[in-house]
Amino acid sequence: MSFKLFKDPIYGYVEIDSKLVSSIIDTACFQRLRNIRQTSYAPLYPASFHNRFLHSIGVYYLGKKAFNVAYKSLQDDDKTFEEDELGNIKRLFELACLLHDVGHAPFSHTGELLFLADSSNPPAIYTKLISLVEDATFTADVEHYYKNGKAAAPHEMMSCIVSLVTFKEHFQTPDERDFFSRCITGFKFRNTDKKNYDVLNCFIELLNSPIIDVDRLDYIIRDSQTTGFQSVSIDYERILNGIRIIKKDGLSLLGFHKSALSVVENVIYAHDSERKWIQNHPTILYEHFLLQHAMRSIDKLFSFSETGTRFFALESLTIEGANFGDKGKISLLADEDIFSKKRKVPGTCPER
């Protein structure tokens, strides 16, 4: 197996299988992430121009480490996966780490709510993902979580959709599409009849957890480094090596060894500090408001196109693109497209 190296400013050299680089990373769909800002912090922190591309590489790196440590921590009676089965689970988890943000809208979280602009209930992206996965258990679980107020973030749903459409050769069966999509959305298995469902849920939590996961771990470290915001130090090696899958009341649960307790506390503190002092800073919120106002105006203008295609939709994120008639064609939608379209739409920028 040959590898290609990516130099990350935090983790050093990251090895990625050459086949994965050529089939995913080198595609226009994934390269689009170079043009999606990781955060909207630039008005307050001028150096914070890092992108979703590098963040995705970082999450992939942390995810590989986390999976290996988690599996080694399993008790022998839980290691009942066949060798080929385990290899496939690991492959799908790593793909989810790499592709978890591939469906982000321009300006990341600032624009993702526009994926829900249709009036259907549940939103069209839910029904689209269900139709792509084609698994009855996945359908039942998604409907259950949605009805009980545990909806996935719009960009998570769209990332699954973009991945399953653009990179479909990597997902041959409904089971593969099911587990991959759960890792990104955080929809854990509720079906206790599925083999090792509780262990699979632990793997899902490694990428999407309400408290600590490799996605959150990377962006906390990366945001701190690029903004210069002085927060607590996070020893990611220590917390990853502290991952454990333990048994409680007959169920496998994800936890951390006591030696990683201080780092767990630091991660929680750093996350809360970033939300309080950066994400909710008045300057950041005002920029967020301006951009959302502009994007809603653009979306409204393009929604009147004779083609009936929405501006913020799957088609606009792909290389094939979406045709809006006399308004032109949009493909690989990114931040700069919003700036260029905003100048042509009257009334998109409120007076300061």
Question: TL;DR?
Answer:
The chain has 15 helices and six strands. The protein is mainly alpha-helical.
Number of discrete domains: 2
How many helices? Answer: 15
The structural class is: mainly alpha
CATH fold descriptor of the largest domain: Hypothetical protein af1432
Major sheet: order of its strands?
1-2
* Record field, number of beta strands: 6
Estimate the helix proportion, in percent.
40-55%
Any idea what the radius of gyration is?
20 Å
CATH class placement of the largest domain: Mainly Alpha
SSE arrangement, N to C: EEHHHHHHHHHHHEEHHHEEH
Domain HD/PDEase: 48-229
Protein name: HD superfamily phosphohydrolase
GO molecular function: dGTPase activity
Keywords: Hydrolase
